[in-house]
Design a protein that fits this description.
The complex is a heterodimer of chains A (about 425) and B (about 140).
Chain A lengths: L11 H22 L1 H9 L21 H6 L13 E6 L9 E5 H18 L6 E4 L7 H12 L3 E3 L6 H10 L4 E4 L1 H13 L12 E4 L6 H11 L2 E8 L4 E7 L6 E3 L4 E6 L13 E7 L10 E7 L1 E2 L11 E2 L4 E2 L4 E3 L2 E3 L1 H8 L5 E11 L5 E10 L8 H19 L4 E5 L14 E3 L4
Parallel strand pairs in A: 3-4, 3-5, 5-6, 6-7, 18-21, 19-20
Antiparallel strand pairs in A: 1-2, 7-8, 8-9, 9-14, 10-11, 11-12, 12-15, 13-14, 16-17, 18-19
Helix pairs in contact in A: 1-2, 4-5, 7-8, 9-10
Chain B lengths: L1 E9 L4 H11 L4 E8 L3 E8 L2 H10 L3 E13 L4 H11 L4 E8 L5 E8 L2 H11 L3 E2 L1 H5 L2
Antiparallel strand pairs in B: 1-3, 1-4, 2-3, 4-6, 4-7, 5-6
Classes of the chains: A alpha/beta (about 425), B alpha+beta (about 140).
Amino acid sequence: MNDWHNMDCVDREELAELREQKLLNTVKWAYQNSPFYREKFQNNSVTPEEVKELKNITRLPFTTKSDLRESYPFKLAAVPMEQIVRIHASSGTTGKPIVAGYTKNDLVEWSRLVARTCALAGVTSRDTAQVSFGYGLFTGGFGLHYGLEYLEATVVPFSSGNTERQLSLMKDFQTTVLVSTPSFALYMAEAAREMGLDPKKDYSLRLGLFGGEPCSENMRREIENQWGITATVNYGLTEVVGPGVSGECTCQEGMHLHEDSFIEEIIDPATGESLPEGESGELVLTPIFKEGFPVIRYRTGDITRIIPGNCRCGHTTRRMDYITGRTDDMIIVKGVNLFPSQVEEVLSGFKEVSPHYRLVLHRSDKGFVKDVEVQVELTPEGFTDSFQELEKLEQNIKNRIRSTISLAPRVKLMEPKSLERTTGKSRRIVEGEDL
Amino acid sequence: MVNQISVFLENKCGRLVNVCQTLGRENINIRALSIADTSDFGILRLIVDQPERALSVLKEEGFMAMETEVIAVEIPDSPGGLADVLHYLEEAEINIEYLYSFVEKPAKDALILMRLDDIEKAKKVMEEKGIPLIGGERIYSL
C-alpha cells in the first residue's frame, strides 16, 4: 500500500497514544485561544487540566448546532482573523449559517484527510475525477477538490448544474471517478439515457464517491447497476471540517473513521450518556487537529454506530456504520418515531417504484403531525393496465412500511419525474399546506 | 384483437388535457375512451386510429403509457344485448377486468370493448354463440 494508507493502518496502541495527546492539545488550545470555548468551559466549571486522558472527554460540555449559530460569525476563532485563509459556511436553511474558518495548516490537514478518504475508496493518481458538488461556501466541492488534487488525481472541477454538459465532458475526458450526491448520480444516469447514451457503455466511470446526503444500501446498488461502477460513500460535515471524516473502502462494509484526527463518541440523544460500543445513537465528533475554528464534542445529529471488529481490507481504523437517521429529521407521527431513511429503505425493496420519493406531512390544528403521505414515482416495470394491481401495490408498500415502523401512511403513486430532482440534498419532506 | 393504449395519470389538474392535446397535435384521433380513477390516480384507456404512434408520442411526452389487448364485440343496440354476452362469459368462467362501450354511427349496433383474463377462450365462446368479434383495423378506421 502506498503512503496514503499509512495512517489508516497504524498500530492501535500507537494510535491511542496519538489520539490522547492530540485531544489534550486541542482542549488546551481551544481554552487558551477561543473566547467561545473559554466561556463555555467556565460556564460548565471545567478546566483543561481535568482532561488528563482520552476518556475524560466526557467531562467537557457538548457543542450543539445552536452554539455554533450563536457564535456567528467568528466567535469560535482561536487565531487572529488574519491567519484564517478560507471561510466556509453551511447553507443555513434554518437560521443563521454555521461558519468554519481554516488556517493554512488546517487546509493542508483537511486536504490530507480527504486524500486518504479518496485513497480508501480506491482512487489513485491515475484517475480523472469530476467533482459535481457545488463549489462555494459548501465544503463538499472545495473539500473533495483539494483532497483529490493532493492525491494527484486529475480533477475536473465542474461544480453542480448543467447536467448535459457534465455528461458530455465526462464522456470526452474519459472520467473515471464521479464525486457527487447519490441522488445526482441517479439523475445523471437518467439524463444520459435521455441523451441517447448508455451510462455503462459510453462512459469510462469505474468509481463513485458519494456524500452530502444519506445513501441507502438500495440506492447504492441502484447507482452501481445503472452506471456499472463501484459506488462508495463517505461522510463529513462543515461543522467539524467538511468531507474527510470517514469513508468506505472497497469492502463497502462501513466507513473508516480517520481516528488520528477525530475523537468519536456515540451517545443517547435523549440523555447525552455514552452508549456501549456497537450500539446505535447520535455521533459526537471532536476534530483534534484544527487551529482556526476548534470544535469540541460536536453533536452531529446523525444516528449511527461504531461497527465492532476489524475490516477485511486490512486498514486498522474503526468503522462508522451508515447514517440511519437525523435526530432533527425525526418526525413524530402519532407518537411513533419515523426517520425518512426507514421509508426509503422500504421503498427501495420495490422494483415497481423509483428511488424518488417524498413525505408529505399533514398537521393537526395544534401543529402535531397527524398523518404522513408517502408519494413515490411509479417505474415502467410497475405500471400495469390493471387497477387492482396498482391498488395492491399501494397496499403492499403501506403494509411493508407498517411492519417496519408501526405506522400506516397513505401511499400515493405518482407519474415518473413528477417529484422534484435536486442537485444537492433532496427535499424529501414537505408540509402538506405547501403543496 | 384490438390494441388499446393505457395511460397512468396522477389525479391532478391538466393531465387529461395534456394527453388529448398531445394526440391532437399529432393528428391522432380518439375513437373511444374510458377513465377509471381513485382519489390518487387514474388509468386512461384509449382506442385510437394509430395505436403504435400514439404510444410512442405519449412516451416521448413523458407519459407512462402501455399497450394492452382487448377484444371488441358487436352487439345489437337494443335492451338485453349486453346481458347475453356477459352471460356467455360467465358460463365459460371468464373474468372481465373492465369493459366500456361505444355506439357506432349510424347507431344500429353497439361495440363493447372488454379486457378479459382469457382472451383466447373468450374468442371461442363468442364464435360458438355467433357474436361477431371486431378486429383492430376496423375499429381504428371507424
